[in-house]
Amino acid sequence: MTKLTEAQISDKLANLEGWELNDNALETTFEFQNFKEAFTLMTRIAFECEAQNHHPDWSNVYNKLNIRLNTHDAGGVTEKDFKLAETIEALVSTNPE
Amino acid sequence: MTKLTEAQISDKLANLEGWELNDNALETTFEFQNFKEAFTLMTRIAFECEAQNHHPDWSNVYNKLNIRLNTHDAGGVTEKDFKLAETIEALVSTNPE
C-alpha cells in the first residue's frame, strides 16, 4: 500500500465532503444528538473497520466524534484510508435521525 | 455534585490502581489483545455510562483505550467520576482474556 502524494489526496478529498488532510491523516468530526447516537454510529463503524482490517484513531466526548485515518505502515494516507472514509460516510448518511 | 479537593482525590485514588489525576481529570489507559477486544470493552462501558448519565472523554487506537473522567458542570473531579471509574474497573476485571 503506497502513500499518496498531497496532490492525489487533494484530488480525492474533493469528493469527500467534510474531511480534510490534517497532520498527515484524513480527519473529520461528527456531532450527534447525544452519546447514544454517537456510540451507535461508532459501533457500526467498528464492524467495518474490523472487516477492512484498518482502524481509526478516534475520540469521543458525549455527542462528538473525531476520526483520524492514516496508514501507519506507509507513513501517511493511502487508498485504505479513503476506502474507510467512504465507508464511514455511507454509514453516516444512512444513520437514522 | 461538588468538586472534590486534591486531598480527597488522592485518598480515593489509593483504592483505584492504574488511575491518576491528570489535567483535572481521572485518567487511565488500557491495552488489549486487538481492536475487537478494545471495542468490546468500550461497548460494555458505553452502556454503563448511559445508565449513570455520565460520559467519558475517551480515545482509541487499535488495541489501546485512553479514558479521562471529569465533571464538566463542577469544573473538576466529583464522586460521579469515581463511581464510573470503579464501574469501568469492575468491567475490565471481568473481561474475558
UniProtKB/TrEMBL annotation, chains A, B:
UniProt entry keywords in alphabetical sequence: Lyase
Record-linked CDD domains: PCD_DCoH_subfamily_b (cd00914)
Catalytic activity: (4aS,6R)-4a-hydroxy-L-erythro-5,6,7,8-tetrahydrobiopterin = (6R)-L-erythro-6,7-dihydrobiopterin + H2O
Xref: Gene3D superfamilies: Transcriptional coactivator/pterin dehydratase
Protein's UniProt keywords contain Kinase: no
Residues annotated as signal peptide: none
EC category name: lyase
InterPro entries for this protein: PCD_sf (IPR036428), Pterin_deHydtase (IPR001533)
Gene Ontology molecular function: any one: 4-alpha-hydroxytetrahydrobiopterin dehydratase activity
EC number of the protein: 4.2.1.96
Keyword Lyase: yes
HAMAP family, A to Z: Pterin_4_alpha
Family per similarity comment: Belongs to the pterin-4-alpha-carbinolamine dehydratase family.
Protein name: Putative pterin-4-alpha-carbinolamine dehydratase
